[in-house]
Write a structure and sequence with these properties.
This protein is mostly helical. It is flat and about 45 Å long. Helices cover 70% and strands 0% of the residues. 11% of the residues are buried. The protein starts with a helix and ends in a 12-residue tail after the last helix.
Length: 150
């Protein structure tokens, strides 16, 4: 288990560094007027600190027993959320952030067993629109519109 955790921590650390490098390409602005590069730098730094902390904890801990992977319906929920995340990444250039954030949220809410389709649809639409408003409008971060909607 420790070896797997250290591999995961290494991958997360590399991804955090790549995220930080991409964040440096955006204008950070000033304290009075933060720019679109501030958020990626904060997230990348937090990811890197988390990866380093988890790595140190893994190195200092005793070996633990094998992980019990989910079975049955729990495995199906895990795979649905994983597939939704991979689908988001694969379809982002074509469908854009707003459409895919809405669909991803809908799939996750369904997989987690939230009752009521109207509630799930309303929350999914609110999340898709809200994430657009937060990132594109308030923070000025350019979001992929998708080639099908140009």
């Amino acid at each position: 288990m420790r070896r797997g955790l250290l591999i995961t921590v290494t991958v997360c650390g590399v991804l955090a560094l790549a995220y930080l490098a991409e964040g440096l390409r955006y204008d950070r602005g000033t304290m009075a007027q933060p720019g679109p590069g501030l958020y990626p730098l904060l997230v990348g730094a937090l990811l890197l600190v988390g990866a380093l902390g988890t790595g140190l904890e893994a190195l200092r801990s005793e070996p633990s027993p094998a992980v019990a992977w989910p079975r049955g319906a729990a495995r199906g929920r895990l795979l649905a959320v994983l597939a939704a995340g991979l689908g988001y990444a694969a379809l982002l250039p074509f469908l854009g952030h707003v459409v895919l954030a809405t669909l991803l949220t809908l799939v996750v809410l369904q997989a987690m067993g939230m009752p009521g389709w109207l509630r799930k649809l309303a929350l999914s639409l609110a999340f898709g629109a809200g994430s657009y408003l937060l990132f594109a409008v308030v923070l000025g971060v350019p979001l992929p519109p998708g080639s099908l909607f140009l």
